[in-house]
Amino acid sequence: MGATTTESVHSRTLRLTKPHMVLEEDVLRSVPEGYVVVEPTLASICHADLRYFGGTRKPEVLAKKLPMALLHEGIGKVVGGKKTKLSRSQKVVIVPYLAGFLLEALDPAQCCPACRGEIADNYCSHSKFLGSGTDGIAQSRLVIPEACAIPIPDSIPDDIAVLTELCSVSYRALRPVKDRLATARVAVFGDGPVGYLTAAMLHHAFRVEPERLTVFGAIREKLGQFTFAKTKMVQEYDFQSGDKADIVVECTGGAFSQSAINQGIDLLAAGGHLIAMGVSEDLVPINTRDVLEKGLTIYGSSRSSIPDFEAVLRVMEEKDCQETLRRLIPDTYTVVAKAEDFASAMESALAHRAWKKTYLDFHW
Protein backbone atom coordinates (compact mmCIF):
# COMPACT_ATOMS: atom_id res chain seq x y z
CA MET A 1 0.00 0.00 0.00
CA GLY A 2 1.14 3.59 -0.60
CA ALA A 3 0.93 6.68 1.54
CA THR A 4 -1.96 9.14 1.13
CA THR A 5 -1.08 12.35 -0.74
CA THR A 6 -1.66 15.48 1.33
CA GLU A 7 -0.44 18.29 -0.98
CA SER A 8 1.59 19.07 -4.10
CA VAL A 9 4.56 21.36 -4.72
CA HIS A 10 6.30 22.73 -7.80
CA SER A 11 9.99 21.89 -7.98
CA ARG A 12 12.52 23.59 -10.24
CA THR A 13 14.37 20.44 -11.27
CA LEU A 14 17.79 20.67 -12.94
CA ARG A 15 17.84 17.48 -14.98
CA LEU A 16 20.74 15.97 -16.87
CA THR A 17 19.09 15.02 -20.18
CA LYS A 18 22.26 13.71 -21.83
CA PRO A 19 25.96 13.99 -20.98
CA HIS A 20 26.98 17.66 -20.56
CA MET A 21 23.38 18.88 -21.07
CA VAL A 22 21.27 20.19 -18.13
CA LEU A 23 17.77 21.59 -18.54
CA GLU A 24 15.42 23.03 -15.94
CA GLU A 25 11.97 21.48 -15.70
CA ASP A 26 9.03 22.51 -13.54
CA VAL A 27 7.94 19.24 -11.91
CA LEU A 28 4.76 18.96 -9.85
CA ARG A 29 5.54 16.65 -6.95
CA SER A 30 2.98 15.07 -4.66
CA VAL A 31 3.69 15.11 -0.93
CA PRO A 32 2.45 11.89 0.73
CA GLU A 33 1.60 11.72 4.40
CA GLY A 34 4.78 11.17 6.43
CA TYR A 35 6.95 13.01 3.90
CA VAL A 36 8.61 16.41 4.14
CA VAL A 37 9.51 19.00 1.54
CA VAL A 38 13.14 20.08 1.73
CA GLU A 39 14.71 23.04 -0.04
CA PRO A 40 18.33 22.07 -0.77
CA THR A 41 20.74 24.80 0.29
CA LEU A 42 24.25 23.35 0.02
CA ALA A 43 25.51 20.27 -1.82
CA SER A 44 28.75 18.70 -2.97
CA ILE A 45 29.66 16.90 -6.17
CA CYS A 46 30.55 13.21 -6.09
CA HIS A 47 32.56 11.30 -8.67
CA ALA A 48 29.38 9.32 -9.36
CA ASP A 49 27.72 12.58 -10.48
CA LEU A 50 30.67 13.30 -12.77
CA ARG A 51 30.45 9.85 -14.36
CA TYR A 52 26.84 10.59 -15.34
CA PHE A 53 27.56 14.15 -16.43
CA GLY A 54 30.70 13.23 -18.39
CA GLY A 55 29.02 10.23 -20.04
CA THR A 56 31.51 7.64 -18.78
CA ARG A 57 28.78 5.31 -17.55
CA LYS A 58 27.85 2.57 -20.00
CA PRO A 59 25.42 3.75 -22.74
CA GLU A 60 22.70 1.36 -21.61
CA VAL A 61 22.91 2.75 -18.06
CA LEU A 62 22.62 6.33 -19.28
CA ALA A 63 19.69 5.40 -21.53
CA LYS A 64 17.89 3.83 -18.56
CA LYS A 65 18.51 6.53 -15.95
CA LEU A 66 18.40 9.83 -17.85
CA PRO A 67 16.83 12.38 -17.73
CA MET A 68 17.57 12.78 -14.03
CA ALA A 69 18.56 15.43 -11.49
CA LEU A 70 21.99 14.68 -10.04
CA LEU A 71 23.53 14.99 -6.55
CA HIS A 72 23.11 12.94 -3.38
CA GLU A 73 25.43 14.74 -0.93
CA GLY A 74 23.71 17.71 0.63
CA ILE A 75 21.74 19.56 3.25
CA GLY A 76 18.65 21.75 3.20
CA LYS A 77 15.83 23.26 5.20
CA VAL A 78 12.32 21.95 5.75
CA VAL A 79 9.73 24.04 3.89
CA GLY A 80 6.69 21.74 3.76
CA GLY A 81 4.94 18.55 4.79
CA LYS A 82 1.95 18.00 7.04
CA LYS A 83 1.78 16.29 10.43
CA THR A 84 5.56 16.08 10.68
CA LYS A 85 7.76 16.34 13.76
CA LEU A 86 10.20 18.63 11.96
CA SER A 87 9.55 22.35 12.20
CA ARG A 88 9.65 24.73 9.24
CA SER A 89 13.16 26.04 8.48
CA GLN A 90 14.77 23.14 10.39
CA LYS A 91 18.18 22.43 8.87
CA VAL A 92 18.52 18.78 7.87
CA VAL A 93 20.97 16.38 6.30
CA ILE A 94 19.43 14.59 3.34
CA VAL A 95 19.63 10.78 3.36
CA PRO A 96 19.66 9.75 -0.33
CA TYR A 97 19.00 6.05 0.34
CA LEU A 98 15.21 5.70 0.47
CA ALA A 99 14.25 2.29 1.85
CA GLY A 100 11.29 0.57 0.25
CA PHE A 101 9.23 0.32 3.43
CA LEU A 102 9.44 4.11 3.84
CA LEU A 103 8.49 4.76 0.23
CA GLU A 104 5.47 2.45 0.40
CA ALA A 105 4.42 3.13 4.01
CA LEU A 106 4.90 -0.54 4.92
CA ASP A 107 5.96 -2.35 8.04
CA PRO A 108 9.63 -3.29 7.45
CA ALA A 109 8.74 -6.97 7.76
CA GLN A 110 6.55 -6.65 4.67
CA CYS A 111 9.26 -5.21 2.44
CA CYS A 112 12.34 -7.36 1.81
CA PRO A 113 15.17 -9.30 3.53
CA ALA A 114 17.16 -6.08 4.12
CA CYS A 115 14.26 -4.28 5.77
CA ARG A 116 13.47 -7.38 7.84
CA GLY A 117 17.04 -7.38 9.16
CA GLU A 118 18.05 -10.62 7.44
CA ILE A 119 20.81 -8.84 5.50
CA ALA A 120 22.33 -5.35 5.80
CA ASP A 121 19.62 -2.70 5.65
CA ASN A 122 21.38 -0.65 2.95
CA TYR A 123 20.54 -3.32 0.37
CA CYS A 124 16.75 -3.03 0.16
CA SER A 125 15.59 -4.48 -3.15
CA HIS A 126 12.75 -1.92 -3.34
CA SER A 127 14.81 1.14 -2.42
CA LYS A 128 15.53 4.25 -4.45
CA PHE A 129 18.66 6.39 -4.36
CA LEU A 130 18.69 10.11 -5.08
CA GLY A 131 20.67 11.00 -8.18
CA SER A 132 20.84 7.36 -9.32
CA GLY A 133 17.68 6.35 -11.09
CA THR A 134 15.50 8.96 -9.39
CA ASP A 135 15.81 12.75 -9.24
CA GLY A 136 18.48 13.90 -6.81
CA ILE A 137 19.20 17.02 -4.78
CA ALA A 138 19.58 19.38 -7.77
CA GLN A 139 16.04 20.73 -7.40
CA SER A 140 14.27 23.42 -5.42
CA ARG A 141 11.75 21.17 -3.65
CA LEU A 142 12.88 17.69 -2.66
CA VAL A 143 10.10 15.42 -1.35
CA ILE A 144 11.41 12.59 0.85
CA PRO A 145 10.21 10.46 3.79
CA GLU A 146 10.55 12.43 7.02
CA ALA A 147 12.93 9.81 8.43
CA CYS A 148 15.36 10.67 5.61
CA ALA A 149 15.65 14.30 6.73
CA ILE A 150 17.87 14.26 9.84
CA PRO A 151 18.14 17.43 11.95
CA ILE A 152 21.60 18.97 12.05
CA PRO A 153 22.83 19.70 15.60
CA ASP A 154 23.54 23.38 16.24
CA SER A 155 27.16 22.51 17.01
CA ILE A 156 27.82 21.34 13.43
CA PRO A 157 28.43 24.06 10.80
CA ASP A 158 26.71 23.66 7.44
CA ASP A 159 29.99 23.17 5.57
CA ILE A 160 30.83 20.20 7.79
CA ALA A 161 27.32 18.72 7.70
CA VAL A 162 27.47 18.50 3.88
CA LEU A 163 30.11 15.77 4.30
CA THR A 164 27.77 13.54 6.33
CA GLU A 165 26.71 11.32 3.43
CA LEU A 166 30.24 10.54 2.29
CA CYS A 167 31.38 9.95 5.87
CA SER A 168 28.39 7.69 6.49
CA VAL A 169 29.34 5.44 3.56
CA SER A 170 32.80 4.97 5.08
CA TYR A 171 31.30 4.44 8.53
CA ARG A 172 28.95 1.81 7.12
CA ALA A 173 31.75 -0.07 5.39
CA LEU A 174 33.67 -0.29 8.68
CA ARG A 175 30.80 -1.44 10.90
CA PRO A 176 31.20 -5.18 10.15
CA VAL A 177 34.77 -5.10 11.52
CA LYS A 178 34.01 -2.81 14.45
CA ASP A 179 34.99 -5.39 17.07
CA ARG A 180 38.39 -5.90 15.43
CA LEU A 181 39.22 -2.20 15.18
CA ALA A 182 40.16 -1.89 18.86
CA THR A 183 43.48 -3.65 18.21
CA ALA A 184 43.74 -4.17 14.44
CA ARG A 185 46.41 -2.76 12.17
CA VAL A 186 44.51 -0.95 9.41
CA ALA A 187 45.59 0.17 5.96
CA VAL A 188 43.64 2.50 3.65
CA PHE A 189 44.44 2.58 -0.08
CA GLY A 190 43.58 5.89 -1.70
CA ASP A 191 44.65 9.49 -1.12
CA GLY A 192 41.50 11.14 -2.51
CA PRO A 193 38.39 12.34 -0.62
CA VAL A 194 36.99 8.82 -0.07
CA GLY A 195 40.30 7.60 1.33
CA TYR A 196 40.63 10.71 3.48
CA LEU A 197 37.15 10.44 4.98
CA THR A 198 37.48 6.70 5.50
CA ALA A 199 40.72 7.27 7.40
CA ALA A 200 39.03 10.12 9.31
CA MET A 201 36.18 7.82 10.39
CA LEU A 202 38.66 5.14 11.43
CA HIS A 203 40.45 7.68 13.62
CA HIS A 204 37.56 9.74 15.00
CA ALA A 205 34.63 7.29 15.05
CA PHE A 206 36.48 4.04 15.76
CA ARG A 207 39.46 5.49 17.68
CA VAL A 208 42.20 3.89 15.57
CA GLU A 209 45.43 5.59 16.63
CA PRO A 210 47.97 6.83 14.06
CA GLU A 211 50.35 4.04 15.12
CA ARG A 212 47.86 1.46 13.80
CA LEU A 213 46.57 3.41 10.79
CA THR A 214 48.50 3.62 7.50
CA VAL A 215 47.34 5.35 4.33
CA PHE A 216 48.83 4.34 0.97
CA GLY A 217 48.72 6.83 -1.89
CA ALA A 218 50.45 7.89 -5.08
CA ILE A 219 50.72 11.67 -4.62
CA ARG A 220 52.89 12.95 -1.79
CA GLU A 221 51.08 16.30 -1.53
CA LYS A 222 47.77 14.57 -0.95
CA LEU A 223 49.22 12.21 1.63
CA GLY A 224 50.49 15.27 3.48
CA GLN A 225 46.88 16.06 4.42
CA PHE A 226 46.58 12.83 6.45
CA THR A 227 48.05 14.25 9.67
CA PHE A 228 46.28 11.66 11.84
CA ALA A 229 47.84 8.56 10.20
CA LYS A 230 51.10 7.15 8.95
CA THR A 231 51.48 7.50 5.18
CA LYS A 232 53.33 5.51 2.54
CA MET A 233 53.88 5.96 -1.20
CA VAL A 234 52.68 2.87 -3.06
CA GLN A 235 55.52 3.24 -5.56
CA GLU A 236 58.11 2.85 -2.81
CA TYR A 237 56.61 0.24 -0.47
CA ASP A 238 57.53 -3.44 -0.48
CA PHE A 239 54.14 -5.09 0.01
CA GLN A 240 55.58 -8.60 0.08
CA SER A 241 57.95 -8.13 3.02
CA GLY A 242 56.73 -4.92 4.71
CA ASP A 243 54.68 -4.69 7.92
CA LYS A 244 51.40 -6.57 7.65
CA ALA A 245 47.83 -5.30 8.19
CA ASP A 246 44.77 -7.01 9.64
CA ILE A 247 42.25 -4.88 7.74
CA VAL A 248 42.63 -3.19 4.36
CA VAL A 249 40.12 -0.69 2.95
CA GLU A 250 40.33 -0.07 -0.81
CA CYS A 251 39.16 3.46 -1.69
CA THR A 252 40.71 3.98 -5.13
CA GLY A 253 38.22 2.77 -7.71
CA GLY A 254 38.56 3.01 -11.47
CA ALA A 255 41.81 1.96 -13.12
CA PHE A 256 43.62 1.80 -9.77
CA SER A 257 41.31 -0.80 -8.22
CA GLN A 258 43.30 -3.75 -9.56
CA SER A 259 46.65 -2.65 -8.16
CA ALA A 260 45.18 -1.47 -4.84
CA ILE A 261 43.22 -4.67 -4.21
CA ASN A 262 46.15 -6.91 -5.08
CA GLN A 263 48.61 -4.85 -3.04
CA GLY A 264 46.12 -5.08 -0.19
CA ILE A 265 46.03 -8.86 -0.54
CA ASP A 266 49.85 -8.91 -0.37
CA LEU A 267 49.76 -6.67 2.71
CA LEU A 268 47.16 -8.60 4.69
CA ALA A 269 48.07 -11.07 7.40
CA ALA A 270 46.39 -14.48 7.48
CA GLY A 271 42.73 -14.22 8.41
CA GLY A 272 42.60 -10.56 7.40
CA HIS A 273 39.73 -8.56 5.92
CA LEU A 274 39.69 -6.57 2.68
CA ILE A 275 36.89 -4.03 2.26
CA ALA A 276 36.24 -2.84 -1.30
CA MET A 277 34.74 0.65 -1.60
CA GLY A 278 36.11 1.95 -4.91
CA VAL A 279 33.83 1.83 -7.95
CA SER A 280 35.08 0.48 -11.27
CA GLU A 281 33.15 0.16 -14.52
CA ASP A 282 35.33 -2.78 -15.58
CA LEU A 283 36.03 -6.23 -14.14
CA VAL A 284 39.02 -6.28 -11.78
CA PRO A 285 41.34 -9.36 -11.72
CA ILE A 286 42.49 -10.33 -8.23
CA ASN A 287 45.04 -12.72 -6.77
CA THR A 288 42.68 -15.48 -5.64
CA ARG A 289 45.56 -17.86 -4.79
CA ASP A 290 46.69 -15.69 -1.86
CA VAL A 291 43.10 -15.02 -0.84
CA LEU A 292 42.69 -18.78 -0.43
CA GLU A 293 46.08 -19.45 1.14
CA LYS A 294 45.69 -16.68 3.71
CA GLY A 295 42.00 -17.35 4.40
CA LEU A 296 41.09 -13.73 3.66
CA THR A 297 37.60 -12.27 3.84
CA ILE A 298 36.65 -9.82 1.07
CA TYR A 299 33.44 -7.83 1.09
CA GLY A 300 32.11 -4.79 -0.70
CA SER A 301 30.16 -1.93 0.77
CA SER A 302 28.05 0.66 -0.99
CA ARG A 303 25.79 3.39 0.34
CA SER A 304 24.52 3.78 3.89
CA SER A 305 21.31 4.08 5.86
CA ILE A 306 19.72 6.31 8.48
CA PRO A 307 21.55 4.84 11.55
CA ASP A 308 24.90 5.53 9.86
CA PHE A 309 23.99 9.19 9.35
CA GLU A 310 22.92 9.52 12.97
CA ALA A 311 26.17 7.95 14.20
CA VAL A 312 28.31 10.18 11.97
CA LEU A 313 26.53 13.34 13.13
CA ARG A 314 27.37 12.43 16.72
CA VAL A 315 31.05 12.10 15.77
CA MET A 316 30.92 15.37 13.82
CA GLU A 317 29.96 17.26 16.96
CA GLU A 318 33.53 16.75 18.19
CA LYS A 319 35.72 19.77 17.39
CA ASP A 320 38.79 17.71 16.51
CA CYS A 321 36.74 15.78 13.95
CA GLN A 322 35.51 19.05 12.45
CA GLU A 323 39.10 20.28 12.13
CA THR A 324 40.04 17.09 10.28
CA LEU A 325 37.09 17.35 7.88
CA ARG A 326 37.70 21.04 7.23
CA ARG A 327 40.73 20.19 5.10
CA LEU A 328 38.35 18.93 2.38
CA ILE A 329 36.18 22.07 2.32
CA PRO A 330 36.82 24.41 -0.64
CA ASP A 331 37.83 28.03 -0.13
CA THR A 332 34.94 29.24 -2.28
CA TYR A 333 31.53 27.84 -3.18
CA THR A 334 29.86 27.87 -6.61
CA VAL A 335 26.52 29.68 -6.68
CA VAL A 336 23.83 27.80 -8.57
CA ALA A 337 20.68 29.73 -9.50
CA LYS A 338 19.84 28.18 -12.87
CA ALA A 339 20.60 25.20 -15.10
CA GLU A 340 23.51 26.96 -16.81
CA ASP A 341 25.20 27.55 -13.44
CA PHE A 342 24.88 23.89 -12.56
CA ALA A 343 26.23 22.69 -15.91
CA SER A 344 29.15 25.10 -15.64
CA ALA A 345 29.98 23.85 -12.13
CA MET A 346 29.91 20.24 -13.31
CA GLU A 347 32.14 21.03 -16.31
CA SER A 348 34.64 22.74 -14.03
CA ALA A 349 34.67 19.84 -11.56
CA LEU A 350 35.08 17.37 -14.40
CA ALA A 351 38.00 19.29 -15.91
CA HIS A 352 39.96 20.04 -12.74
CA ARG A 353 39.33 17.12 -10.33
CA ALA A 354 40.64 19.06 -7.33
CA TRP A 355 41.45 17.22 -4.09
CA LYS A 356 39.02 19.35 -2.11
CA LYS A 357 35.30 18.88 -2.60
CA THR A 358 33.26 21.15 -4.89
CA TYR A 359 30.42 22.86 -2.98
CA LEU A 360 27.28 24.16 -4.68
CA ASP A 361 25.44 27.04 -2.97
CA PHE A 362 21.85 26.93 -4.21
CA HIS A 363 19.97 30.21 -4.72
CA TRP A 364 16.48 29.18 -5.69
What does this structure look like?
- This protein has twelve helices and 18 strands.
- The chain has helices at residues 47-54, 59-65, 100-103, 158-161, 164-174, 193-204, 220-223, 257-267, 288-294, 306-316, 319-325, 339-352, and strands at 5-18, 21-32, 35-44, 68-69, 73-80, 91-94, 97-98, 128-129, 142-145, 149-151, 186-189, 213-217, 230-233, 245-250, 268-276, 297-300, 334-336, 359-362.
- Strands 3, 5, 6, 9, 10, 17 and 18 form a seven-stranded mixed sheet that branches. It has a six-stranded parallel sheet with strand order 13-12-11-14-15-16, with helices on both faces.
- α1 (47-54) packs across α12 and α5 packs across α6 (193-204).
- The two termini are 34 Å apart.
Main sheet record: 7 strands, mixed
Care to count the β-strands? 18
Proportion in helices: 25-40%
- The CATH superfamily label of the largest domain reads Medium-chain alcohol dehydrogenases, catalytic domain
Cα-to-Cα separation, first versus last residue: 34 Å
| Helical stretch tally | 12
Class by alpha and beta content: alpha/beta
Query: Which regions are unreliable across 5 or more consecutive residues at pLDDT < 50?
Result: none
The first-level CATH class name of the largest domain: Alpha Beta
Number of domains: 2
Pfam families: ADH_N, ADH_zinc_N
Keywords: Metal-binding, Oxidoreductase, Zinc
Cofactor: Zn(2+)
Family: Belongs to the zinc-containing alcohol dehydrogenase family.
